[in-house]
């Protein structure tokens, strides 16, 4: 319930009438670079299956990726076919023939610089992304536009969802991850409320929403990410709970993939 | 095992007492109550000294005192802070009752605060250490933010007590966490002592008589929290005249009405406070749909039923309201009720019986689109206890009693309307009994030595009436067991010895040492550092063990320059067991299995506290300095190695000065400096699925910037008109506008998302305020 925390921060700011922000500088510790795995298998042939390998960077450097080239990347479907993912560009490994199937488990194996990393993820059953609507949302004295995805959570616990928002093709850097502990078997109508003012939707903006059905490990990753690793954490800062085994961080997921878009009226 | 230990302790204790009885010459008792002359309020901790002897005592929480002496003629000196001492000559040939009324020390006549009586150097005598006491009188001139006098903010200026943050009323005592402070108002537990996210405390200064903070060496009658006891007592109400007083401040208005029901015998008090800052806010079109305010009400009645009985009924009710755009509503508050019956069996045995009720709940409402959701949580206590005070002889004072609390927790309930996307969910209620027996004897074998030996035996029964879980190390539920409501799920028992020794080196100097063990059965599970009204209280269960602490302290006390100054130094070492933290990625929100989200470990804290206080003259005030270290070691955090607790602040200093310029003007100032809190900053970053993710290496290895601030205040007495007294209080918080960091965040730059910027948010710079106080 990120919202509760944000409403509390609003309360605090209302109290601290003189509250103000300034950009500052700090001495930060640095760590030796650690391998980051960012991989997913999807059930969508246009998106395919892709694994990006990189290293962590200094906080004060820019946000560009430090790629990890020259690794061997394979994904095995259940106990069957082993797909190899050749490096298609610096640090990016891809196999367009690997299209995931719901119910199957995908086992990732990466060998990079003599280090072996593994992970596995089971692709959950796909829950239909029924529709996407634009709604008004009152926000501090003005009304902003937000989008609400509609879907019906199937009865029975264990369904997890993540959503990614794009405005005119650019990713909005907010994470939306939900489990079904409160919504089990319900028609879900929660708006995706973005946090930054500069992301505000304007008339004519094309908003795309990607809905992934994800397994428990991936839900844990994205939930803990949204709580603790965003840079303005709601909880004590910590690393997201990774499902990668071996000396690495990041996440590997076999996710169903659906995309809808809408133009802001 | 524990029971055998207790038996041993009780046996030892009784031996100790009986050994002293042998001395036997017939003794008589002087007893009675000590009150304030002008309003009839009983005086807590007034000193009763037998002149030219080492005998003496002090009044208890209800102003009652008792002292037993061999027949002779004595001079008794009665004194209290802010009062003119009174001396009585007594020819003791039988038990006698002496009720004393002390009049106000008249500052106005002299314009100078009279040097306190020697016996008031509270720190030097007795064996009790690690205690801070403040009366409202002493805090009235100290500048505070928004001009809103607040006991919990003023005590932060004392050594060993640290603030939770800028303008915050939350406190950390000797390395303990916020939930390890027992905050009691007229004996009732206050589960959330904060209004408006901690910026104000629940204590309306107009309704409060005084506060005692025990940082260590807690007397045996207190128990249930590891770090401190904040014993707050409400005023009783003037039993002489009806008074109306009040104030208009920057953010709140207060009104206080008190008076006799029957003169000298009974009185009432009603105090109310309401903030109105949100009314200004609503004038702005932008904020017109927002509400943010709180109010509270204190009421007390006391009634004398003959000479031997006195009845007190007191209550508190407070509520915070936050409404945001008709979309979110957050409401929270405490309610307490205390009924106390004082009974004097005879001049040597005093009994207080209390029935106490305490409630805290919050309600959260969300509305968006077709979703209309309500979330509710509550914690409620019923407490019955008896406290006996028995003056055995002039060398022994015994205190013993028992307490039983019934806790009912409604951990979380979520309900939605028919069209909402959520299923209703009501978590199992949690029931438990917390009980304790205690006995403590203050023994004064000689003029210089005072020894307090006591123990508390506490027990906790986790009761059924819901599902309980067994979990593995990774926090996965292994099995679920259902218990019926009357079934005991688990019982815990702890012996908590309390020992303190005071030795007077010379007339002005003493040393003391103390040991206290404390057990805590109710725990707050918090995700944030400040006060969050949604922070969850959880009772000890089959998985959550009672938290335990051992504290050793050592102190040096001296009165110098004819008692004008007081210098104290105390060192402490505290170790804690079974302290809680939550797992990384914990989801505490309405989670049935909170236990699965928790990690357990230990803590240690040590430090040294210095305080130099100037007690008399035109200029009064103090300098306090604490050097300390606070660490935690929790399985599953920071590679299971020791790390700094958030509240670990190496240096913490306060300077407070109050200057009586003239009859009309009093000026004041305070300066605060402390090392920034221990925090975790990222040591790297990376990209996953297009999102910037920060990498964290070790817990709390970084520091917020150091905090410092200067405040000024001035009080102007306005012309008296008949019985109508008025004053204006001015204050300026953060005089030089230091931007103290409230939070530090890392984010992508707005214009160039490829660059990370570090953003510091600060809250209060130059907060001026004015308030108007009146009384008639």
What's the level 1 CATH class of the largest domain in chain A?
Mainly Beta
How many separate structural domains of chain B? 2
Unreliable spans of chain A: 1-5
Supply the CATH architecture of the largest domain in chain B.
Beta Barrel
Total DSSP E strands of chain B = 51
Radius of gyration of chain A in whole Å, from Cα? 20 Å
Report the radius of gyration of chain B as a whole number of Å: 27 Å
Q: Note the main sheet of chain A.
A: 10 strands, mixed
The biggest sheet of chain B amounts to: 22 strands, antiparallel, barrel
The whole-number mean of residue pLDDT values of chain B reads: 86
Domain count of chain A: the total is: 2
Task: Give the integer mean of the pLDDT values of chain A.
Answer: 88
Shape of chain B: globular
Number of strands of chain A: 18
- Summed up, the helix count of chain A is 2
Description:
The complex is a heterodimer of chains A (265) and B (776). In chain A, the strands form 3 sheets. In chain A, strands 2, 3, 4, 7, 8, 13, 14, 15, 17 and 18 form a 10-stranded mixed beta sheet that branches. Chain A has a 4-stranded antiparallel beta sheet with strand order 6-5-9-10, with no helix packed on it. Chain A folds into 2 domains: 127 residues, Immunoglobulin-like (Sandwich); 88 residues, Immunoglobulin-like, CATH 2.60.40. Chain A is globular, with a radius of gyration of 20 Å. Chain A is built from 2 helices and 18 strands. Helix content of chain A is 10%, strand content 44%. In chain B, β21 and β22 form a beta hairpin. Chain B has 2 domains: 89 residues, Carboxypeptidase-like, regulatory domain (Immunoglobulin-like, Sandwich); 645 residues, Maltoporin, Chain A, CATH 2.40.170. Chain B is mainly beta. The longest helix of chain B is centred in the N-terminal third of the chain and has 20 residues. At the A-B interface, α1, β1, β2, β11 and β16 of A face β24, β44, β45, β49 and β50 of B.
